[in-house]
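Session log. Operator J.P. requested a structure for one protein chain; no other inputs attached. Running the standard single-chain path with C-alpha cell output.
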Amino acid sequence: MGESGFSHSARRFAIIAALAVASLGLSPVSVVAQQARQGAQQSQQGTLPPALAAAVLSGNAQAIQTAILTLSGGDPQRVASLAVLVVQNAERLAPTNPAAALQSATAALAVIGNSAVQTAAPQSAASVLTSAARIVAQPSVQMADPRGVGATAQSMVHLAAQPQVYAQSPTAALQVMSVAYSAVNAPAVRAAVPDGANAVRTQLLVASQQQALSSVNPQNPAMIAQILGVGTTQESEPRRESQQPVQNQPGNLIRDGRGENPFVSGSPT
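Structure written below.
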C-alpha cells in the first residue's frame, strides 16, 4: 500500500472513531484531533495512549493497528513512534502474557511494513524489528503461539531486507534474520508450521542476492550463508539453539568488527 493508500486507511479509521463518539454528544472533528494530539504527546513521553494501551492488553493485532492509525492522524512518523512504543511495551508484557506480546509485535510490524513509514522513519522501523525479534526468540512465546511465530518470522525477514531499513544497521538486520530462522526451526514452531523453515530460508537466499543490500554491506551474502549454516548438521533437522533465549546464545549471533552485539543490548544501531 502506497503513501496515498496509507493516508486513506488512516482517514477511514479516524472517521469510524469519530462516528463512534458522535452519539455521546461530542464533536467528531474535535475528538479525532484530540486523539491525534494525544498520540503525539504521549509517544514523545514514552507512554502508550490509553486507547492503545487497552488494545495491547486485548491481544488483538487488528485492534492495535486500528488504534495506531487513528492516534497517528495519518502521519507516518507518528505511526512509527507509536509502533516503537507498542513493541517495547510488548517486550515487558511477554513474560506474563506471551501470546498478547506476539500480537503486539505482529501489529507493529504490520504498520511499519508500509513504505511511507519506512521512508519517513527508517530508524524507528529498525527499532521495531529489533524488539520484535527479542519477543519471537523467547521459548514461551514460541510455545504460546507457534503458528503466529512462524508468520511473524517471515514478516521480520521481509522487513529486515528492505534497503532503507537494512541500511540503518546491517548487523542488526542480519541478527533479526538469524533470530527469525532460528525461531521457525524451533521444535514447537516447526511442528505447527512445517513449511516455515523452507519459506524463511528462501527469503534469506533472495536477500543474500539483493544488490541493494550488498552495496551497503559487501559481506551480506557471506553473513546470510552463515545464518543458514549455523547450528545445523542437516538442513532437515530443527536448530537446537532456538530452544534457548537468543541472549544466552552469543555464538549464534553475527557480531560486528568490534566484537559487539547491538541486538542483545537492544540498540538498532
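Operator note: Residues 99 and 238 are 22 Å apart (CA to CA).
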